[in-house]
Design a protein that fits this description.
The chain is mainly alpha-helical. Helices cover 66% and strands 2% of the residues. The chain is built from 13 helices and 2 strands. The longest helix has 28 residues, at 179-206. The protein is elongated. It binds zinc ion. Zinc ion binds at residues 165, 168-169, 218, 222, 244, 248, 251.
Length: 273
């Protein structure tokens, strides 16, 4: 139950709006600067003295504003002699980690994430095929992932092949051209890929080899989807992607559905590691 649930429905809209503190007002303005790119990723915020003068607030309020932005992951406040505040422009990786936290709290299984990706990815194939600039904006990244996959198959590197295949799927999402999909589905792809990676390490330790036949089939099906994207065949690309995701199911093949609960730390190690 959220806090708002305790308030009778007919009184909710009559509650006075909480007033913003000076620190929150400064945090709002600094946040806009960071998100607009006015202060680039990896740059330092101006000095504390300069900001207190500009915003006409106390040092205490400014420090509080920085703490707010730090908890949002937009700043790292460096303590000590050097001091200052390092700016982090939010990336899709941050969304992946946040999604991982929520999924873990809800005890969502990795197989559940995989099922969602299977549903949504054909839409990305469709979007890729519909792009006017698909030959330059989509295909090079897919072709590069396929080249990596082929190299791994030739070398008999099953683990490398599984990860190259995942890279192909991540590229399909990343190049679909719809930014909202790139961020949201990209986050799910990152959650899934990070868990496959840890499974791979377990497989390798156990000496379980990935079947070269499966890797070759995956390669061939990717080629088929790519050809339809290149031809601008929107319906065909989505159908081929759907068939591939259902039949190949997962690279690497796992024994049935993955019933591990999503771990946010596994996602973090992959996306920030
Ligand atoms: Zn695939």
């Amino acid at each position: 139950m959220s806090k708002g649930d305790n308030v009778p429905a007919n009184r909710r809209h009559t509650r006075p709006r909480r007033r913003y503190s000076p620190a929150e007002a400064v945090a709002d303005r600094l946040r806009d600067r960071i998100l607009s790119g006015e202060v680039p990723n990896g740059a330092m915020l101006p000095k504390l003295e300069d900001l207190t003068e500009e915003f006409r607030v106390s040092k205490a309020s400014l420090r509080e504003a920085c703490r707010i932005l730090e908890t949002e992951g937009l700043l790292s406040v460096l303590r000590g002699n050097v001091g200052g505040a390092l700016v982090h422009v939010p990336q899709p990786a941050h969304a992946a980690y946040t999604v991982g936290l929520v999924l873990q709290a809800r005890e969502v299984k990795v197989g559940d994430v995989a099922a969602a990706v299977e549903r949504f990815e054909p839409i990305c194939a469709e979007l890729c095929a519909a792009r006017e600039d698909r030959v330059t904006a989509v295909l090079p990244e897919l072709v590069a992932a396929q080249r990596e996959l082929a190299g791994c198959i030739d070398r008999g590197d099953g683990e490398g092949a599984a990860l190259a295949a995942r890279a192909w799927h991540e590229a399909l999402v990343a190049r679909c051209g719809n930014e909202t999909t790139v961020v949201l589905l990209g986050a799910l792809e990152a959650v899934w890929t990070s868990h496959i990676r840890t499974k791979q390490v377990e497989y390798t330790k156990l000496g379980v080899a990935i079947s070269p036949e499966l890797s070759r089939r995956v390669f061939a099906e990717h080629e088929e989807i790519q050809a339809r994207i290149e031809a601008g065949d929107v319906v065909g690309a989505a159908a081929a992607a759907r068939a591939h995701l259902q039949t190949a199911h997962i690279h690497p093949p796992l024994e049935g559905e993955d019933t591990r609960v999503v771990r946010a730390s596994t996602v973090r190690d992959r996306v920030f590691g």
